Predict the structure.
Amino acid sequence: MEPEKIRIICPYCDAINAVPKDRPAKAAKCGKCHQPLFAGSPVDLDSARFDRHVSRSDIPVVVDFWAPWCGPCRAMAPAFEQTARELEPHMRLAKVDIDKAPDIAAQYGVQGVPTLVVYKNGKAADRQVGALPASQLRAWIERHIG
Protein backbone atom coordinates (compact mmCIF):
# COMPACT_ATOMS: atom_id res chain seq x y z
CA MET A 1 0.00 0.00 0.00
CA GLU A 2 1.33 3.41 -0.97
CA PRO A 3 1.90 5.87 1.91
CA GLU A 4 -0.38 8.87 2.28
CA LYS A 5 1.07 11.98 0.63
CA ILE A 6 0.77 15.69 1.20
CA ARG A 7 1.06 18.37 -1.47
CA ILE A 8 3.78 20.95 -0.95
CA ILE A 9 4.37 23.76 -3.43
CA CYS A 10 7.99 24.47 -4.36
CA PRO A 11 9.00 28.00 -3.28
CA TYR A 12 11.35 28.25 -6.30
CA CYS A 13 9.51 26.87 -9.34
CA ASP A 14 5.93 26.56 -7.96
CA ALA A 15 5.72 22.85 -8.86
CA ILE A 16 3.29 20.76 -6.82
CA ASN A 17 5.16 17.99 -5.01
CA ALA A 18 3.59 14.93 -3.39
CA VAL A 19 5.63 14.16 -0.28
CA PRO A 20 5.00 10.99 1.77
CA LYS A 21 3.38 12.05 5.04
CA ASP A 22 5.55 9.68 7.06
CA ARG A 23 8.86 11.12 5.77
CA PRO A 24 10.56 14.23 7.11
CA ALA A 25 9.37 16.99 4.76
CA LYS A 26 12.04 19.44 5.97
CA ALA A 27 14.66 17.57 3.92
CA ALA A 28 12.43 17.07 0.85
CA LYS A 29 13.51 18.45 -2.52
CA CYS A 30 11.39 19.51 -5.48
CA GLY A 31 10.94 16.81 -8.09
CA LYS A 32 11.15 19.42 -10.87
CA CYS A 33 13.93 21.88 -9.93
CA HIS A 34 15.59 19.82 -7.14
CA GLN A 35 15.67 22.78 -4.74
CA PRO A 36 14.66 22.30 -1.08
CA LEU A 37 10.91 22.52 -0.52
CA PHE A 38 11.60 24.45 2.68
CA ALA A 39 14.22 27.19 2.64
CA GLY A 40 13.75 28.54 6.16
CA SER A 41 12.36 31.88 5.02
CA PRO A 42 9.00 33.27 3.89
CA VAL A 43 8.08 32.86 0.23
CA ASP A 44 7.45 36.07 -1.72
CA LEU A 45 4.15 35.73 -3.54
CA ASP A 46 2.74 37.89 -6.29
CA SER A 47 -0.50 37.81 -8.25
CA ALA A 48 0.75 35.01 -10.51
CA ARG A 49 1.88 32.71 -7.68
CA PHE A 50 -0.60 33.42 -4.89
CA ASP A 51 -3.50 31.11 -5.79
CA ARG A 52 -1.28 28.11 -6.48
CA HIS A 53 0.49 28.36 -3.12
CA VAL A 54 -2.65 29.04 -1.09
CA SER A 55 -5.16 26.74 -2.78
CA ARG A 56 -3.03 23.71 -3.69
CA SER A 57 -0.96 23.26 -0.51
CA ASP A 58 -1.94 20.61 2.04
CA ILE A 59 -0.11 22.48 4.80
CA PRO A 60 -1.45 25.75 6.21
CA VAL A 61 -0.10 28.91 4.59
CA VAL A 62 0.30 32.08 6.67
CA VAL A 63 0.44 35.18 4.49
CA ASP A 64 1.81 38.51 5.70
CA PHE A 65 0.25 41.29 3.60
CA TRP A 66 2.74 44.13 4.00
CA ALA A 67 4.17 47.25 2.34
CA PRO A 68 7.74 48.57 2.24
CA TRP A 69 6.64 52.00 3.53
CA CYS A 70 4.91 50.46 6.60
CA GLY A 71 6.98 50.87 9.78
CA PRO A 72 5.12 48.18 11.79
CA CYS A 73 5.50 45.77 8.83
CA ARG A 74 9.27 46.30 8.77
CA ALA A 75 9.44 45.96 12.57
CA MET A 76 7.58 42.61 12.48
CA ALA A 77 9.55 41.20 9.51
CA PRO A 78 12.46 39.67 11.51
CA ALA A 79 10.05 37.83 13.82
CA PHE A 80 8.08 36.55 10.81
CA GLU A 81 11.32 35.29 9.20
CA GLN A 82 12.40 33.59 12.44
CA THR A 83 8.99 31.93 12.76
CA ALA A 84 9.33 30.57 9.21
CA ARG A 85 12.66 28.97 10.14
CA GLU A 86 11.20 27.44 13.28
CA LEU A 87 7.81 26.21 12.06
CA GLU A 88 8.62 24.78 8.63
CA PRO A 89 7.63 22.17 7.45
CA HIS A 90 4.42 22.31 9.51
CA MET A 91 3.41 25.59 7.89
CA ARG A 92 4.41 27.69 4.92
CA LEU A 93 4.94 31.37 5.65
CA ALA A 94 4.62 33.80 2.76
CA LYS A 95 4.64 37.54 2.12
CA VAL A 96 2.63 39.66 -0.31
CA ASP A 97 3.75 43.24 -1.00
CA ILE A 98 0.41 45.00 -1.45
CA ASP A 99 2.02 47.69 -3.62
CA LYS A 100 3.11 45.02 -6.13
CA ALA A 101 -0.06 42.91 -5.85
CA PRO A 102 -2.94 45.30 -5.06
CA ASP A 103 -5.37 42.92 -6.79
CA ILE A 104 -4.65 40.18 -4.23
CA ALA A 105 -5.04 42.61 -1.33
CA ALA A 106 -8.37 43.82 -2.73
CA GLN A 107 -9.61 40.29 -3.49
CA TYR A 108 -9.01 39.21 0.11
CA GLY A 109 -10.28 42.41 1.74
CA VAL A 110 -6.94 43.61 3.09
CA GLN A 111 -7.53 47.20 4.15
CA GLY A 112 -4.58 47.81 6.45
CA VAL A 113 -1.05 46.51 6.86
CA PRO A 114 0.32 44.42 8.26
CA THR A 115 -2.48 41.88 7.92
CA LEU A 116 -1.79 38.22 8.57
CA VAL A 117 -4.11 35.59 7.10
CA VAL A 118 -3.96 31.85 7.69
CA TYR A 119 -5.17 29.77 4.75
CA LYS A 120 -6.16 26.12 5.20
CA ASN A 121 -7.38 24.10 2.23
CA GLY A 122 -7.46 27.27 0.14
CA LYS A 123 -9.76 29.18 2.49
CA ALA A 124 -9.01 31.95 4.99
CA ALA A 125 -9.17 30.37 8.46
CA ASP A 126 -8.05 33.32 10.60
CA ARG A 127 -6.93 36.92 10.30
CA GLN A 128 -4.85 39.29 12.41
CA VAL A 129 -4.66 43.00 11.58
CA GLY A 130 -1.72 44.87 13.05
CA ALA A 131 1.82 43.96 14.04
CA LEU A 132 2.44 41.44 16.82
CA PRO A 133 5.50 41.07 19.06
CA ALA A 134 7.58 37.96 18.29
CA SER A 135 6.15 35.77 21.07
CA GLN A 136 2.53 36.64 20.24
CA LEU A 137 3.17 36.20 16.51
CA ARG A 138 4.51 32.69 16.99
CA ALA A 139 1.72 31.73 19.40
CA TRP A 140 -0.93 33.02 16.98
CA ILE A 141 0.57 31.06 14.08
CA GLU A 142 1.11 27.87 16.13
CA ARG A 143 -2.62 27.69 16.91
CA HIS A 144 -3.14 26.70 13.28
CA ILE A 145 -0.70 23.78 13.05
CA GLY A 146 -2.37 20.45 12.44
The chain has a mean pLDDT of 95. The chain has one domain: 39-142. The chain has four helices and seven strands. The helical segments are 47-55, 71-87, 102-107, 134-142.
